[in-house]
Amino acid sequence: MSVxxxxxxxxxxxxxxxxxxxxxxxxxxENADLLLKLFFYVALPALVLLSIPQLELTLExxxxxxxxxxxxxxxxxxxxxxxxxxxxxxxxxxxxxxxSIIFNGAFAYPFIFVSYGEQGMAIAYLFDxxxxxxxxxxxxxxxxxxxxxxxxxxxxxxxxxxxxxxxALLIAIVLNLTGLRFPSFGQEFLRILSxxxxxxxxxxxxxxxxxxxxxxxxxxxxxxxxxxxxxLLGLLLVKxxxxxxxxxxxxxxxxxxxxxMNTLTYAAxxxxxxEFAASLxxxxxxxxxxxxxxxxxxxx
Length: 300
What we know:
By secondary structure, the protein is mostly helical. Helices cover 79% and strands 0% of the residues.
């Protein structure tokens, strides 16, 4: 337990530092956007290129994207069922659906990295890939359906296909299958860039945190669906897919991830309720921060 505390407590402090920087005017939402762009375009591709080639790509690992999609789609069914008990405007309903189904796997990365290392990170990214597929398909469709903008789905598909993490994944799989490796200086370069993952993600989420509660009832519903039902779905999936060892542990940690940042992105793009989206992301993020160490301890 002390090992987990020593690894996880600094992560909480980085998150708190990000929030304090916002309170004292040192960082703004625009700065946080830049931090997340650096993570997405630099740190995450480096991490993928560093970790995936080292994995032995078994059927268990290749099933992870499918398991993630099954979890996300199950969350959507739960959201449809719960929606009947809620009263909200159309723009808020779109946020409710999107926030219930997609998760912010990147927020779990720092916790997984300090607990399971580069191999754990590779497993996490393979699982998160399934979530990304749904985020750029069903979740965006729902945002368009309940939103008001004329943003074309083709643009989003293009962004997904040409995204640096996906391109890095394809290169990493080729390296894995061919046995080719980067030279030692290249691996060290990637290792330095990948080490930016933790500070970039946690500082940005600390800046994004907003304690204001918007649409309390639907907010609680999303928290239950995304995190607590997510945990139960994770337990079910590791049984159904026969996941064991580190793969099982990483999936269970990822299962309690907060609502995806694309919830806020789509809200801005499609004219949904941005205040509700910001509140939803903030509170699911804080609860996930408490759940991650618990899941790491229980699975350890």
